[in-house]
């Protein structure tokens, strides 16, 4: 192993170790925060794009302006809204 | 001896991972790093979110390693340390990792379904309902088994003040990260330091006096005893501290997760990690420098029939619980990890890797127990009763851990014991909060439509707590532990059954899952039936206090229910399995 | 009080609106006021969203959907084509989606949403008012004379504006809360600062636009709103009702202008037919009532003209009828 390889090998180990420790210590906290944010995002889409369901909440003129930003989320949003939820989903 | 056992365990684990698990992953499951996983495919920022393999290894390990791997082996040494060690190793090698890894894989290959949905898909709609009811009782037993351990730990004078300050440090950590938006490293250093200082304060004479006076408030001498069980007395302090523990869990269940449960768990984690690291090093330090007496205090083999607990088979196999195999892990693997894995090939190091690591943790617990059964001149077990533990497993762990921490300068035996006890208490409380939260959700979903009151979070939580009370104070804790272990291992059997059917459906080799499933099923159903019979038998004998007789009844009924539910699931499951096999055979004939 | 005096004393009221039932002469007054102001060196834009293209008729030029067109020095007129505006707006959204995500084609799901949203009845009002904001925000004129859509629409828009405003503040709060969680996750996982929330920026802009467009109607400092009526019973009753409604939505009413008054000199002549005399008497009765009701706020009584008001010449006459010889100074 050259010096260079050694260094990159060790930095890889350190990085993985950091990841593992993060995974144990705070990944769940970060994930919960993102989950909360994500479900709010879906609520947001429901509110702004809700006139699709015949609920005029935001003037459609303005919800169109927001549309470009939520394009990637719309299909996952729909999928999540339509998916049958199971009790055991709530466990982790 | 301690170091040798640990080294043997590590060697077995490495072989199991490299030679067996990796082979199955490659040849049978055929994990494909290029295949899109649900986490990447459905990334919705809520249920599905990809994360890296290293992160998920940490996540999985932390989620599965709780009280089980620690308390289980400590209780099981009553049959002798060797059978316990053998089951730990054989269990994890042939069954444990299979369940954790393959359930993650199964969920990943089935659109990220969780246990309920998988039971519906692979067995029947009825199976899903039975599984959920099973799950509720299983969780209730976790509450009872862990709650009893925490109550026992809190009755130790050096524990409550330290645990209270640690909790405050946790709440502070929540405020610092969430409200005051402070840097995480800074927050961690400050709050963990506060927690450590708090634990040290808890070992001060004034703190011990305080707890002792609380303990004696309930009464001293004979008044101290709530009622007698054939295994020993149920005491008032234990009753009181049980309420405290459940109040703690109540807060964790109903308060915003940011305010209480998460930050307290976060600070606890660092404390646990530091304690574990210190004591693992301690095992080797002790072996090399002889800092403490690490000779095993209990024979390798004691007896086949532990008079108070039962036969080595099947009872030892359910007593050891999570260190060898645990149904809890399949819940984590499916609902948590499978929805985050960004590559199929990460399932092996995450699912199997974390399980093998947990077996090492269980081995540590075994070592602590086997070396710590005498404390000075006090024997912590009762040789006349064939090495029956006189104190709670928690106390033995605390004492054992303190011996391996004594090499660190400044850690007195009483500080070490406080660290060990609080270590175990926070591990238990972390899981209990999660379980209570889930029971609340479960009762809202299961009966919320018929009884709207259950939709109120407080109602669901309080009902779950009342059930826990019932179990805590009417049953003897070692028997609850056996029941919990039975439910836990049986749930693992259910997971293995699902995996077998899934593999058969896919036309893959499935004997490596099928036979472990059969073994787990036979062992745990037998254990539950034996426990039920024993409970009913006790109930009928004369001179049993009313409370304990009631506890017998509850334990017996739960054991019967769990066994019955499992048998129905197995009957339905085997039908599905036969169908899947027939289908695969006809395909093969084409 | 005279009409010119209202302009003189309130030089800040630069958004001028004439409201009232259809066909009472709002467009005429808008044009004439624009003429009067332009003649005095003020740069004026008269604009309308009426699809009937009445500004085109009055100025005798086709200006529909052509942006601001110069009618004479300092006087510009614009007729908004709402449909065209919506179409352009849709294309803008589509382009943005294509640019943001590098799509060749808008996904079907998204396209059908765009279509569905544009078919909503509320779309047009929002589009019109939004364009008004564009015009006003762009600036460049001393006076904006807004030939208002029929009263009902304006009131509907005003009533929705406050509801929208509340909604948007709620949504904004939601976005801000989401941001909190995002930052929290970033802090916990020790990631660098999170990305700016573009949606939040858009929301703030939408809010600004809605409040601007509703404040154009309701700002007492900047807005002069004149009611147009004629001395007839039905109109009188309607005007009274409408003015109450306007007050409720805090539209400041600067005054009333009575149109189509039969001049006294016409009935004085001996040859005046009885029919005309009767109408004159009737008008007189209602004029009295109008003065009773609105008192000093009645700013002008405009005689019925003998022909349609079209072309600059007639507009000049109308301006004279409204403002006389008075000037802004």
What is shown here, in short?
Chain B has helices at 2-29, 38-41, 53-64, 68-76, 81-109, 115-122, 125-154, 160-179, 184-202, 205-217, 236-254, 261-289, 312-319, 327-337, 347-371, 393-405, 413-447, 457-474, 477-505, 511-540, 546-589; strands spanning 225-229, 232-235, 305-306, 310-311, 374-375, 378-379, 381-382, 388-389.
Tally of DSSP β-strands of chain B: 8
N-to-C order of helices and strands of chain B: HHHHHHHHHHEEHHEEHHHEEEEHHHHHH
With strands numbered from the N-terminus, the spatial order across the biggest sheet of chain C is: 3-4-2-5-1-6-7-8
Beta-strand percentage of chain B? under 5%
> Largest inter-chain interface?
A-B, 36 and 49 residues
What does this protein look like?
The complex is a heterotrimer of chains A (92), B (590) and C (329). Chain A is mainly α. The termini of chain A are far apart. Chain A has helices at residues 3-25, 27-48, 60-82. The mean pLDDT of chain A is 81. Helices cover 74% and strands 0% of the residues of chain A. Chain B has one domain. The N and C termini of chain B lie far apart (58 Å). The mean pLDDT of chain B is 88. Chain B is globular and about 75 Å long. In chain B, a hairpin with a 5-residue loop joins strand 7 and strand 8 (388-389). Chain B has 21 helices and 8 strands. Chain B is mostly helical and 590 residues long. In chain B, the strands form 4 sheets. Chain B has a two-stranded antiparallel ribbon. Chain B has a two-stranded antiparallel ribbon with strand order 3-4. In chain B, strands 5-6 form a two-stranded antiparallel sheet. Chain B has helices at residues 2-29, 38-41, 53-64, 68-76, 81-109, 115-122, 125-154, 160-179, 184-202, 205-217, 236-254, 261-289, 312-319, 327-337, 347-371, 393-405, 413-447, 457-474, 477-505, 511-540, 546-589, and strands spanning 225-229, 232-235, 305-306, 310-311, 374-375, 378-379, 381-382, 388-389. With 329 residues, chain C is of the alpha/beta class. Chain C has one domain (3-84, 122-177, 202-323): P-loop containing nucleotide triphosphate hydrolases (Rossmann fold, 3-Layer(aba) Sandwich). In chain C, strands 3-4-2-5-1-6-7-8 form an 8-stranded mixed β-sheet, with helices on both faces. The longest helix of chain C has 38 residues, at 151-188. Chain C is elongated, with a radius of gyration of 24 Å. The model of chain C has no long low-confidence stretch (mean pLDDT 86). Chains in contact: A-B, A-C, B-C. Chain A binds chain B through residues 15-17, 19-29, 31-32, 34-35, 37-39, 41-42, 73, 76-77, 79-80, 84, 86-92, and chain B through 42-49, 51-52, 54-63, 113-117, 120, 128, 132, 135, 184, 188, 257, 262, 266, 269-270, 273, 331-332, 334-337, 340, 438, 441-442, 445-446.
